[in-house]
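Regression test case RT-17, inverse folding.

Input:
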């Protein structure tokens, strides 16, 4: 049975960091720097599709991080009808530099985390642990979290329960007293519920009436969860 929430784990991309915005701005800025002409918004949309496809192959264990990045770059250059180059990974690294420079927090994040007081916080992400630490450092948030658990550290990706349980163990709290906060309704919130945590969906689009649309409401939502548990 679920107890009072004592610790909170967070997703990173599109929950704390505006990943979609950074990806769009990063690729547009990179293509512009390379002298690419034409509809850069269309190119960014295609890049987003390719990125999701190749990153999902990485999550499924079908390639490693460098392999998915190399394939992503090669596919994108083919789509743009750019001449092929010996090492597409270098092209990807150029993009990643621009992407990292575009990283930013959503405006509700700092106040939302502050409202949680000294509740222990951690990260569970389907991205790579070391890369996630770099991202969190860049936006000035790394020291706020006691642990960062990436897909490589857990040996499983969300929605698998193991990655949530690895996060709970790293934070030092059992799933029954730990909340998990993420922007993916099924892959984050429902999957965390399934793993025995309290899943909280961050509804970043604000569409519909479900979910938390502002992290500044998170403390109240977690309190409500306590109230409903004990009522
Ligand atoms: Mg996310």
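Golden output:
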């Amino acid at each position: 049975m679920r107890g009072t929430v004592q610790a909170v784990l967070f997703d990173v991309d599109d929950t704390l960091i505006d990943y979609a915005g950074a990806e769009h701005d990063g690729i547009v800025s990179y293509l512009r720097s390379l002298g690419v002409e034409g509809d850069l918004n269309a190119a960014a949309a295609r890049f987003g599709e390719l990125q999701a496809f190749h990153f999902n192959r990485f999550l499924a264990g079908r390639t490693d991080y460098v392999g998915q990045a190399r394939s992503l770059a090669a596919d994108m250059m083919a789509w743009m009808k750019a001449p092929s180059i010996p090492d597409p990974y270098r092209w990807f690294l150029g993009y990643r530099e621009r992407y990292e420079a575009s990283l930013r927090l959503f405006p509700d994040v700092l106040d939302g985390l502050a409202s949680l007081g000294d509740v222990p916080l951690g990260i569970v992400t389907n991205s790579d642990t070391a890369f996630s630490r770099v991202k969190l450092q860049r936006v000035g948030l790394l020291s706020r979290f006691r642990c960062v658990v990436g897909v490589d550290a857990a040996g499983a990706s969300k929605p698998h329960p193991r990655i949530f349980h690895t996060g709970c163990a790293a934070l030092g709290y059992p799933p029954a007293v730990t909340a998990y906060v993420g922007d993916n309704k099924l892959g984050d919130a429902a999957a965390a519920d399934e793993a025995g945590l309290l899943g909280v969906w961050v509804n970043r689009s604000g569409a519909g009436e479900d979910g938390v649309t502002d992290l500044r409401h998170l403390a109240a939502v977690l309190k409500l969860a306590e109230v409903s548990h004990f009522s």
